[in-house]
Design goal:
Residues 104-115 have a biased composition (Low complexity). InterPro entries: CC103, Dynein_attach_N. Residues 97-117 are annotated as: Disordered. The protein has a two-stranded antiparallel sheet. It has two domains: 6-68, no CATH class; 79-121, no CATH class. The chain has helices spanning 6-15, 20-50, 55-63, 72-80; strands at 89-94, 116-121. The chain is flat, with a radius of gyration of 30 Å. The longest helix has 31 residues, at 20-50. The protein has 126 residues and is mainly alpha-helical. The chain has four helices and two strands.
């Protein structure tokens, strides 16, 4: 096989009105499409082998063919993120003193069941 000068081959492609970047992106897209096709096919075969009861179950298995389990670090990172106003709400379970200061007990709670949860708002982290 002969060594082909890169500049010469690119000029030949340009003379054919072809772009190397466009060819690379088309190839990457085709490879992703092919990988997706085979993952879907494997998922379909698994679903048929499992004898799913409904088409919705079958479709769910096929649609989730590219999903992967979350890693522990990903789960931990997701729980640490600010997710709206809820992180600004700090709840504490008071079992040591009954009733906790600032909480009125107008329900049927008794000292035998001192499970009162009080919630206060803190400054949101933004």
């Amino acid at each position: 096989m002969e060594y082909v000068d890169k500049a010469k081959s690119e000029s030949h492609l340009k003379s054919l009105d072809l772009s190397v970047d466009r060819l690379e992106s088309d190839l990457q897209r085709a490879v992703r499409h092919e990988e997706r096709h085979w993952k879907e096919n494997d998922a379909k075969l698994r679903a048929v082998h499992q004898k799913v009861a409904t088409y919705d179950e079958f479709r769910g298995i096929v649609d989730g063919c590219e999903l992967r389990p979350l890693k522990l670090k990903e789960v931990e990172d997701a729980t640490k993120r600010y997710a709206g106003w809820a992180p600004a709400l700090v709840c504490t379970n008071h079992t040591s003193s009954y009733p906790p200061s600032g909480v009125s007990t107008t329900n049927n709670s008794t000292p035998d069941s001192p499970s009162i949860v009080s919630c206060t708002f803190t400054n949101p982290p933004f």
